[in-house]
Amino acid sequence: MGTYARQNLVFERGEGAWLITPSGDRYLDFASGIAVNVLGHAHPRLVAALTEQAGKLWHTSNLYRVEGQERLAERLVASTFADRVFFCNSGAEACEAAIKASRRYQFVSGKPERWRIITFTGAFHGRTLATIAAGGNAKYLEGFGPAVEGFDQVPFGDLEAVEQAIGPETAAIMIEPTQGEGGVNVASAEFLRALRALCDKHGLLLVFDEVQCGMGRAGTLFAYELAGITPDLMPIAKGLGGGFPLGALLATEEAAKALTPGTHGSTFGGNPLATAVGYAVLDAVLEPGFLEGVQQKALRLKQGLASIKDAHPDLVEEVRGQGLLAGIKVKVAPAEVVKAALGEKLLVAGASDNVVRLLPPLNIADEEIAEAMERLSRALGRVAAPAT
Ligand SMILES: *Cc1c(COP(=O)(O)O)cnc(C)c1O
């Protein structure tokens, strides 16, 4: 179907941070399939995990225990705030599960009148009916009938607006610690801590959507660690499977208490193939030194982008980001920069708010960051500055 405005470009193979076309052209991948390929392409450990599992067992459904799923869940629980994990196949499903868990938590807590969720401008939580309502982007809601009820949107970062939006029907607050699609907007640690305090005060659940900013991209395993607080619910996906479709909802014991047998489910969720790969990804990201490496590379990228801003002040307005989720706000349409970068065989991704996103694999080499900066600078050199 015509749902995507795709580049007329096809890749046959991948090697680390490089994507290779059938004719052998090599592109440096700073999009990572939208923050998905955290270990780059064709990582030997992921290839081994997938092929080994493929020879044993693919799918049994959740009618039975799934050993690989239990193993991955235990590792996620051991490495995060969470006590419980629900597996699904995508970010939208993980967010949908968080919305359902929030409402039903209040329901089983004797507060069925609490079903509304506070969300933020610029949010993106997926493309299902409930998650487009949660995201509140008019462009994504248009023509899809009455929006799912129960979302109250306030400006990103505006604590006073959050306080005013809390009412007797509020069940939860849902936020991306760093907005990806919305234009690489980083919530301050202070703001996230204030949301935690408000949730505690009013008996609300705090939901951190770490589908894009999680799985090491922030320089910590999850972005919430940087704020020094924990959420109650956390949908994750994208990087979790390193390219294999896998999503999950992480929860505290308390926040998970409403999801009893029969209340929610997924046929494919947490199947043996997906969870074998997910375990291998998590194992690599948790290796000693890996996240420190992400922090160092993030600093290098930030410095590189700052130099690019200095070199192209007529085009680059601002450098944004946290960890290896970086962006430059440009003074032209981001699509122009994405196209010019393609001309330099560099892959980057657009975002809202005139931002061009840079999302390299987390194991990107220093020389590849330097190479990307050269290519981006050359690309910007070919973009006409807006008339002043
Ligand atoms: C991509 C994204 C989603 C939706 O994930 P899909 O796998 O595309 O359904 C949800 N939340 C955030 C923060 C995302 O970046």
Automatic annotation (TrEMBL):
Family: Belongs to the class-III pyridoxal-phosphate-dependent aminotransferase family. ArgD subfamily.
EC number(s) given by UniProt: 2.6.1.11
Modification type N6-(pyridoxal phosphate)lysine: residues: 238
Name listed for the protein in its UniProt record: Acetylornithine aminotransferase
Any one GO biological process: L-arginine biosynthetic process
Cofactor section: pyridoxal 5'-phosphate
One Gene Ontology MF term: identical protein binding
GO cellular component entries: cytoplasm
UniProt keyword terms in alphabetical order: Amino-acid biosynthesis, Aminotransferase, Arginine biosynthesis, Cytoplasm, Pyridoxal phosphate, Transferase
Pathway: Amino-acid biosynthesis; L-arginine biosynthesis; N(2)-acetyl-L-ornithine from L-glutamate: step 4/4
Source organism per UniProt: Hyphomicrobium album
Gene symbol of the encoding locus: argD
Superkingdom in the source lineage: Bacteria
